[in-house]
# Entry
Amino acid sequence: MSKKREELSLLKSLVALLLIFLCIWAAQWQFNRGLDRQARNDAIEENTARPAQPLAVLASDVAAHEWQTTTITGTFDTTQQILLRNRYFEGVYGFQLLTRFESVDGKSFWVDCGWVKAGEDATTRPELPDIPAGEVTITGRLRLDTSLPRGSFFAIPANKSDGLVSKANAQSGSSTENFYLDLLSGSQPSLTPAVPAPLPALSDGPHMAYALQWVFFGGLIVYGRYLIRRDVLSSKEL
# Structure
């Protein structure tokens, strides 16, 4: 009987050690996520405060200059537009409008032209901003292509009378650059979005608090195992 008790006690200790290990792993994971969030916030604050630079200067290292304001000259291709679903502004449902842009130096990439309100129903095409034809100069925030949501989204076909019936993938593919721009303004007043893409909320999030929470849970397991062991030893003495 005593041997079985010892084996059971050993099993409980092993389970406790496993749970403690999991708590430490979860705490470290949350801690690293918190560090990543802080580094991202610092990069956004630093790069948005920098003065605007031509895209040719920043495109060599997009990751280091993400969120920095940039300028470039070229033309919009309004036959190549995508509406990203599930975008809200002040509680109103709408889309984020992406339009293909061809620069004078041969670069092709997407430009986020801001939020547009959805139509009355799924078959009604939303009213889109008037994007000028011809060569324009635009100012926008440089963004990594990986920041674009993945998956299939409603797209505006070249034949506008067809409505929102086709779908396009938001990934740029091999024909576009590995970045896109959040449009802020341009050489014509109509290029300033009524609702431009917003900056993310610069919050550190709950990750550090969660890390401490997991450490606390690990401590509770240690204390609980101590109490169980103490009670077992006390019962043996009796």
Summary: The chain is about 35% helix and 30% strand.
